Amino acid sequence: MQDYFAENPTYPPHLFHRRYRMRRSLFVKLVQACEANCRYFTQRRNVAGLKGFSAYQKISAAMRVIAYGV
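The structure corresponding to this sequence follows.
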């Protein structure tokens, strides 16, 4: 995920657009809105104290399921 969302991403914007079919700024707004309105999309710790999946990972997975049914 850091390859796309770090302050200095590894991949240029056109590769992000090819993968997600939207600009990075729109994806970030979508993640922020989901985090603000739905507890599921916030990153939480499990019983062992380890961090779970990030909101970016959860949104990416949800979009993949919606798009491809996988």
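The first helix runs from residue 2 to 5.
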